[in-house]
């Protein structure tokens, strides 16, 4: 619908300002274009008193003059509708223009002029309409804020927009820092994964080296054949027989030596007895001689006793060895007799002996293997404990380093955020304080010069500059204006344009009132 209305306004009526659906509410907020449309249909005779300004007084003047004409056309229009259009409420201007379009089309089909339509109205209705217009003007005046309030609202809105932009900038900076922090975390995670992968690969290499270094101990070869067993038994028996024969020969030789030694000692003792007796009888008394003989007889008896003990011990050892040899020989003879009974029994006996030998070998191998397994388990357990301790220590160190890095980043972000907030608040307060200080010093200087009298026009200009955030004092000279003006000169040009525009709007308001 807004496109149809725009086409009607731009192509058929050709209003002074091009209207688009996006700027529809703003274009009709002052009421000037509505007056122009009614003027083109010869319904608004006082269109020359309309103002294009957007100040509150101009809008109040325009809509107060539109109200009687719109009621004459039968368009629903009151102070609430006017307030909605002035505040640029979405859809309010479109709805009013659509009703106006329908009413003007009806008027065009009827062929009546504005004067004819007014004359057709009863006199009482005209008086009532005048009262309603006055009432409408008063109510609309209460609804529309004053220009000073509007300027203050505009100044507040400007600072709010500035605060909003600064907040958005801070949010963007915070988002960028958060992205950098997340990127650092992702790089740290990739670094940890790569580190774990490298450590796992090293562990696998160490385990492979350990597996390669294990020495496989070959099992001892077992002579399990019957011939080897018989040969071993025969060799053992021959060796035992030879040992027994050698011991018997040694025993007989020792006995012969003892007999010969006794005979030689008895002969020498008889020869020397005659010589020693005479000497002893001559040199010693009878008591000493008897005591000496007794002592020698005791020594001979002790030596004889010791020799008898050694001989008996040797005989006992030889008898025990001989009995063991006889026992083995008897067992062998018994086995041979038993094995001679039948070939089948002999084969079974061989198999039983073979099984017994295998059982013995298996038992020994099993003990040896269990011992190796136990040593291997203990070694693996100790290696696992050492590895877990090293990994835990490394993980603890990595975690502490990561915590320190994250703590530093968090502290840095907190410091930057506090600095940004301080700069934002300081800049806002400094700007407002500088403007207030400039205005105060300007007023104080002028009152000292003019004896506390400030012209209304000058004070109004200062307020406009203050509300628009422009410096009150002159920043630079613009006479003559160079081709490339500086920033201060551009600010002075904007101040001059602002003051000129306000003067023009005041002039138009004063001319409209006259």
From TrEMBL:
GO cellular component, one term: cytoplasm
Superkingdom, natural source: Eukaryota
Keywords for this protein: Cell projection, Cilium, Flagellum
Family annotation (Pfam families): CH_2, SPEF2_D5
PROSITE patterns assigned: CH
Domain Calponin-homology (CH): 1-105
InterPro entries found in the cross-reference section: CH_2, CH_dom, CH_dom_sf, SPEF2_D5, Sperm_flagellar-bone_growth
Protein's name according to its UniProt entry: Sperm flagellar protein 2 isoform 2
Species name: Daubentonia madagascariensis
Organism placement in taxonomy: Eukaryota, Metazoa, Chordata, Craniata, Vertebrata
